[in-house]
Amino acid sequence: MTTHTLDIRDLRISLAGQTLVSVNTTINPGEVLTVMGPSGSGKSALLAAIAGFLGSDFTAQGEVWLGADRIDTLPAEQRGIGLLFQDPLLFPHMSVGGNLRFAMPAEEPDKAGRIAGQLTAMNLGGYENRDPATLSGGQKARVALLRLLLSRPRAVLLDEPFSKLDAHLRQDVRAQVFAGLIAAGLPCLLVTHDADDAAAASGPVIQL
Amino acid sequence: MKRKLAKKNFVLPLAPILLGLLVAGPVALGLLMILLPAFGYLPAIGQETLSWQSWTALFDTQGLGQSVRLSFVAGVVTPVIALVSVILFLAATAGTALDRLIRRLVSPLLAVPHAAAAFGLAFLIAPSGFLSRLISPGLTQWQRPPDLLIINDQLGLTMMLGLVIKEIPFLLLMALAALPQLDVPRRVAMARSLGYQPVLAWLFTVAPALYPMIRLPLFAVIAFASATVDVGIILGPGLPATLSVRILGWFNDPDLSMRLLAAAGALLQLMVSVLAILTWLVLEKLIAQGWQLWQASGNRSRFNRSLKMMGFTGLSVATVLLLLSVIALLINAFAGTWRFPSALPDAWTLRHWETTLTSLSGPVINTLVISFVATVLAVILVLAALESEQRHGRSRFTSLWLLYVPLLVPQVAFVFGLLVFTEFMHWQPGLVLVILGHSVFVVPYVFLTLSAAYRRFDPRWAQIGLSLGASADRVFWHIKLPMLLTSSLTAAAIGVAVSVGQFLPTQLLGAGRVPTITTEAVALASGGSRNVIAIWALMQTLIPMVGFILALAIPQLIWRRRRAMRSVT
Amino acid sequence: MARWLRGYLAALVISLGPGLPLLVLAEPDPADWDSVLKQATGQTVYLNAWGGEPRTNEFFAWTASQVDERFGITLQHVKLSDTAEAVSRVLAEKQAGNVNNGAIDLLWLNGENFASMQHNALLYGPWAEQLPNFRWVDADNNADMRKDFTIPVNGFESPWLRAQLVFFHDTYLIAQAPRTMSELLAWAQRHPGEFTYPRPPDFLATTFMKQALLELVPEPEKLYQPVTNSDFDAVTEPLWAYLDALHPVLLRQGRSFPASGAEMRRLMADGETALAFAFSPSEAAIAVDRGELPDSVRAYTMNGGTLANVSFLAIPFNATHKAGAMVVADFLLSPEAQLRAQDPDYLGSTSVLSVTALPAQWRERMQLIRRHPAAPSEEDLARRLAEPHPSWVVALEDAWLQRYGVR
């Protein structure tokens, strides 16, 4: 498995001439960088800029590199940046298996076998044909993580991914997500305002 | 890892331009082609010098002032009554059982085309109509129908009533689509905490925010009411008829020089509609000032009861009238002998259907083909334009005003110009022209319905899709389209309903060779029996109704194993 | 392939027309009927005819099935709400230089429109007298087969039905019916609100006025001359006096008039009026059979006779399918079609064929057709008044609208 560093070089995002956020940092494979800050501090804009969804009223300066590739000039689908949101956002019109299959690269061999194996590994064996709407909150979060990993991202951005989970689930899910991402050797950027998330990520923290 | 370079899509950015041109182009062209003959230039009949002649002839026409007055009054009074009914209803019934019932009825009611509603109303309230029969002779002692001038009355009151009961569901639907963006419960709760009674709280906090959002549809109502042809023929006065009905007569006159007069009349119609909208703008200012005074008075409870009553009755009466009109059509379609004052037919029969069946098939197939093709064309173009908008930014060609143009310019004013143009180009009238003509009116409604859903669609779905490595096209086909299926089908159903109801473009651009249910129904108004008219009007209602039912049923069927998709609307 | 589908595809091809060079057919020669039949095979004939009456529409639907079966012709009935629309289209086509590919192949005309189309050279002909079935008309002994509203037809129109003004009243409501136009006024004054008549431009409006004029004017011959030969105001003065007296006792006090004959009939069906009229002897009978009018309705003509004319079919000068149009016109003249047209179970009209000229087998079948109790008697129908000169129609219409057009 090839691993990369996510290199954010003097990235500055501004809105109507006002600088919102300015970051210059490097995230190593298997490392989770946490960005903390109050709402309106530009956390979401930062993620959007890296992932390639920055609205046209914002301007971004600087460069983003993944290993030896400069990615900030590429369209979103070619950047290899995976996303996890507050909500699991499983496509409601596809089965669990359909969601996973959609994420896998076209050239992937034996998709069905791989999906079955991964689901079993996540304690979701035999769930391929389930309607995502029938899953519990924790199950949905696990499927979302699995979908992300199956798309073979080269880096992952997490936008307050645990804030909507019940307290008793949060720790489990959090542990599982970080374990999965770190095991995959992915550089991760976590945006949150929950100090526990930052602690669990056990990586460097930037305070905006 | 190597990634494929995305193919650049060159067609998509053209979609908004195509959409804007399809909608505004024919209007502009039609108006231009009416402008020339209005000032005496029509080489086809050897008129090549500009002059005011057709205008002097127009103003010399007997009863012109009365025709203009009828059209203008209908254009102002209809929207006032419809708007007041809708606003008061929403204010008075928010959250009640009646509110839920009417919300459920509004789409099916919208499916009743204007001509069908007009026929039904005529069958309902004529001196020998269903209502009169219900109360005779018991309450009235009438053994014969009373000699009352109700249908085709000189003031056009019945015509306006027919327009009002049709426009109310339209405005209500537009208002219901806008309301979720206004956070109504919070606004009302806030005002009530300040001591305002519920209806006033709604009127003071929600109505002023809602009004700008339904203003454009309201202008469309003004333009339609001031220039309607089919409702005018069926319910409007005859001596003289409304301006638009007379223009149609002049255009069809065997004396071709009357076309110059008709062209001038069409421009006059445009002015009448514009004047009605200007009048509305003045009224709007006055009402806004009065509203502020009322609000500033700080009165918290006056009128609450009476406003509530009005809110309940106005819309209920309109809804019941429309429903009874459809019932009157149903009864007539199966009625045998039916002497006055029997409330119900003395005998029921299927004979009218048997004899009509052979002549139904052609027009029904035409109607289905035209509405299907025009709607599919419209949905594809609108989806392409909206997708282009999300990828490449908003285009000037999809600005709301531009797309509303065909709804704001009276049909009589520019469809005739289009006819002149097609004759000038030697284009054969027929199916293709009719379908294009219908698209001009279908596209705006499809765009209005679909754009709201498309622009509201959570952008994170597409972001997730792209971040999983799917191309923008794949995200469109596999994520956006299925998730917006219900909205697309609803928009298509509305498109079909709009197409089915078109009379003027079908009649003119098809040269009568493309008979649809609507053109046949209006032609029969001059000939057929009540029973046959009822059958055509019912068929006219049935097709859009089936469209709405399919738009509801298909997603339920496809997503029967996807719970979240069935609750999403 | 179903007929509608074939017609549909034909319509589709034609509407795609602008891009295709259309074939211009050689003019058919009606004297060589076999060649006409050959040319007609496979043609789609657009018959433009009033579409306001379901049973007429059904008759044309039957005609379409027959000519499809016998001659391979697809007949499309373009339903007009006003014949003027078709006249206006032919004129527009001529002005636009369309001389070969007209949209109308066959047209059901009235005398007024025939005169105006002849005047503008918008018709093709002569062709009608060469139709094989024309001989059954026996035109030499029936002069009205060669005149339309006093205008000589000269083979530019083919007759297909007789029509006559017939009054009908509901005997259940009012036993006595007026038998002259003057009596009608007195009747209406005794029974206010029991009668009304259609407003112009419906042709029944001018029909009613012409009927009244023929009885009221001292010199009816003037009406058979162009209107410009007379002092219109002086001639029509008795008519306006008559209408001025009549209108206040009409339904709705003459403030509103029905738009058409069918609407007038609907008013009778609803029990609003007790007297109505139609330009078809069998209209009342058929409406009774269909349950549209009560069976107490009886039809009759005026003592001094009523207006009668012949309905004709014409081919526009630029018709695309002239051969097909001739074959359809000839079929409509055939004893078989005429028999069905006369049969009260179908159209219930009056045939243009001369019973005495027909071969024996058809003569018998014609004579066997039952008379409906609600239909007028033979003697009633024998009292015919010829149509005045067509120029009176427009003049009367204008004058009426001038006087009563704004209420």
Automatic annotation (TrEMBL), chain A:
Pfam families: ABC_tran. The keyword Transport applies. Keywords: ATP-binding, Nucleotide-binding, Transport. One of its GO terms (molecular function) is ATP hydrolysis activity. Residues 3-208 form the ABC transporter domain. InterPro entries: AAA+_ATPase (IPR003593), ABC_SmlMolc_Importer (IPR050093), ABC_transporter-like_ATP-bd (IPR003439), ABC_transporter-like_CS (IPR017871), P-loop_NTPase (IPR027417). SUPFAM superfamilies: P-loop containing nucleoside triphosphate hydrolases. This is ABC transporter domain-containing protein. It comes from marine sediment metagenome.
From TrEMBL, chain B:
It is found in: Cell membrane. Coiled coil: none annotated. Residues 64-279, 364-551 form the ABC transmembrane type-1 domain. Keywords: Cell membrane, Membrane, Transmembrane, Transmembrane helix, Transport. GO terms for cellular component: plasma membrane. It is a multi-pass membrane protein. GO terms for biological process: transmembrane transport. The keyword Magnesium does not apply. Pfam families: BPD_transp_1. The chain crosses the membrane at residues 12-36, 72-98, 110-135, 155-179, 200-225, 260-283, 310-335, 364-386, 398-421, 427-450, 484-504, 533-559. This is ABC transmembrane type-1 domain-containing protein.
From TrEMBL, chain C:
This is ABC transporter substrate-binding protein. The lineage of its organism: unclassified sequences, metagenomes, ecological metagenomes. Gene3D superfamilies: Periplasmic binding protein-like II. SUPFAM superfamilies: Periplasmic binding protein-like II. It comes from marine sediment metagenome.
